[in-house]
Specification:
The complex is a heterodimer. Chain A has no helices and eleven strands. Chain A is an all-beta fold. The N and C termini of chain A lie far apart (37 Å). The chains are: A mainly beta, B mainly beta.
């Protein structure tokens, strides 16, 4: 299994500002994923973050809005830029292991005023 | 485009009852299906993973089945307890197409309440 931590656990931000969310894994993993869960909705994949290469974004998500870093095999950050109230969501980091099971972090609950 | 539907959206049962949660998906070309549990304000906890070649998986009081051809999965919870109260999410991963493809498509979940 994998133990994943995220910082911050929650935050309240003002419109127009940016927030960087950190994800730390207790083991080296090739692929890390960032998901968004909007209120009352299912989880949606934002992007896949591979170490040493540019993140791959899903349709509807762009790098300017959600820049991602992946400096090593245990860490990644997701920045939510120029925030609006529509960005209020839970953001979750996830990793996949050789067992095919995907593990999720505890999430970051973001509220944008 | 894969779509995952979970029925019912919410379920309330008395303690001790056996129950079934349903998940359906539109594209049967899946690699595996995973059931998760999400407690309020928390992340996801993996419960069971079923590979596309498998029919069912069991863990304790939980049993998940998969009928890939019909695009259905069920999660059976035996002798439910108040601690089982949570949202249960179903997610499918599509078949690899020449490379790694780990994207999970989620349903909206079933909110389960088990009353003492």
């Amino acid at each position: 299994s994998a133990v994943i931590s995220q910082k911050p656990s929650r935050d309240i931000c003002q419109r127009g500002t940016s927030l960087t969310i950190q994800c730390q894994v207790d083991s080296q993993v090739t692929m890390m994923f960032w998901y968004r869960q909007q209120p009352g909705q299912s989880l949606t994949l934002i992007a896949t973050a591979n170490q040493g290469s540019e993140a791959t974004y899903e349709s509807g998500f762009v790098i300017d809005k959600f820049p991602i870093s992946r400096p090593n095999l245990t860490f990644s950050t997701l920045t939510v830029s120029n925030m609006s109230p529509e960005d209020s969501s839970i953001y979750l980091c996830s990793v996949g292991l050789l067992t095919d099971t995907q593990y999720f972090g505890p999430g970051t609950r973001l509220t944008v005023l | 485009k894969q779509e995952v539907t979970q029925i019912p959206a919410a379920l309330s049962v008395p303690e001790g009852e056996n129950l079934v949660l349903n998940c359906s998906f539109t594209d049967s070309a899946i690699y595996n299906l995973q059931w998760f549990r999400q407690d309020p304000g928390k992340g996801l906890t993996s419960l069971l993973l079923i590979q596309s070649s498998q029919r069912e998986q069991t863990s304790g009081r939980l049993n998940a089945s998969l009928d890939k051809s019909s695009g259905r999965s069920t999660l059976y919870i035996a002798a439910s307890q108040p601690g089982d109260s949570a949202t249960y999410l179903c997610a499918v991963r599509r078949e690899n197409s020449g490379g790694s493809n780990y994207k999970l498509t989620f349903g909206k979940g079933t909110l389960l309440t088990v009353n003492p």
